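Q: I'm writing up a methods section and want to include an example of the input and output format. Could you take the sequence below and give the corresponding predicted structure tokens, formatted cleanly so I can copy it straight into the document?
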Amino acid sequence: MSDHYSAKRLPVDPGQTGWLNIIEKVPSYPTLEQNISADWVIIGGGFTGLSAAKQLAYKGGSGLSIALLEASQIGAGPAGRNSGFMIDLPHALGGDSYVGDLSSDREQIRLNRIAQRFATDAAKEYQMPDHCVDKSGKINASVDYNGQHHNDIYAKQLDELGETYSMLSSDDMQAITGSQFYSGGLYTPGTILLQPAEYITRLARGVCQRKPQLQIFEHSPALSFTRVGKHWVIKTQHGSVTAEGIIIAANGHAESFGFYQNRLMHVFTYASMTRPLTASQQKMIGGDERWGITPSDPMGTTIRRINTPEGNRIVIRNGWSFDPSMQISPSRIENYVKSHRLSFNRRYPELHDVDFEYSWGGRLCLSRNTVPAFGWVDKNVISACCQNGLGTAQGTLAGMAAADLAMDRNTEVITYLTNHDAPSKLPPRVLSYIGANATIKIKEFRARKEM
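A: Here is the clean output for your methods example:
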């Protein structure tokens, strides 16, 4: 514990996220340029921060004031850079498959569905369009025997869990995707496919319109917070907030303030989005207008086809890098775009002339032992961080739980998130960097047929 915490760096989000840029109208919020007071300050305006804000605003009463500080623009950070899968079933990214033990999987499914209900309730209340929160399920796709073996193992686990799924043939996959690339797939109906940036921006606007006790400030990164008596003073570049408590909803950026030192792994993933497909191009490949594929090997290529008022597009995501500095160069993205091009052309050779309109990198945070960084970290300071690559569902849960913890409420989500060991210590930074990136390359090589 300390009386003063200062950020040694600020978040950097490389490239232009297509999810945000294709939205026609995006609400904006002021920069904090004065000294104000609030009961609670939330640092971070992604899935976690906005879920916490909604929970506090709706359950804390009109007398509870909330200030949310977003370092950049709502929807421009990691929340608007993921692939938009809000998955109900086990989906651990850190291993060689998605499954774990049955008891923990059942608990995780139950909690993931709490997060999904939060999202679907918000979509209904704030009248979000169907493409924004689409409960259409997802496909775990395979390209060879090894991938099918992964899916067979997954299917056996789902049988034991009593969960519904369908096995898809290569013909089924072509009918859905318009591509001859896939040999088969495993379809599960419970996944919600989000337009992540649009969901986040509409969630922010919806809560603000209905609950005026919430104030959102964009381009207002928290630079430091200092204990002054019974309060915390959170300073930004041009203002400050004096508050009773703080919720840190900034995922791996929590380490920048000195929390969980050498316990969080900062990873980037990379994605590209095509320009809108023409009517003739859509007819050429056929398939469904909207779908989502995760690879049977977690290190393979994730792909979405989206259909929004801004056009029918394809989104490719593959490539991982471990970067403790939480910063990457523009040339890094350019290198991964080449990989995206190859992946796209392997699936759709007839669309080889379709350009990528947007390419970007997205930060995520993992712990070595796959646990969250959740709970009290100082007097009236709550960490709701480290979503282990599953920010849509786990971030939503962490935000809900942080708000309930702030209001002295006890819930099963709080019990779950606090019933873990602390994130494990990492090896020295140089060894972590070399070891993690070597492991990534080995796993990507093994998954090369799914890239």
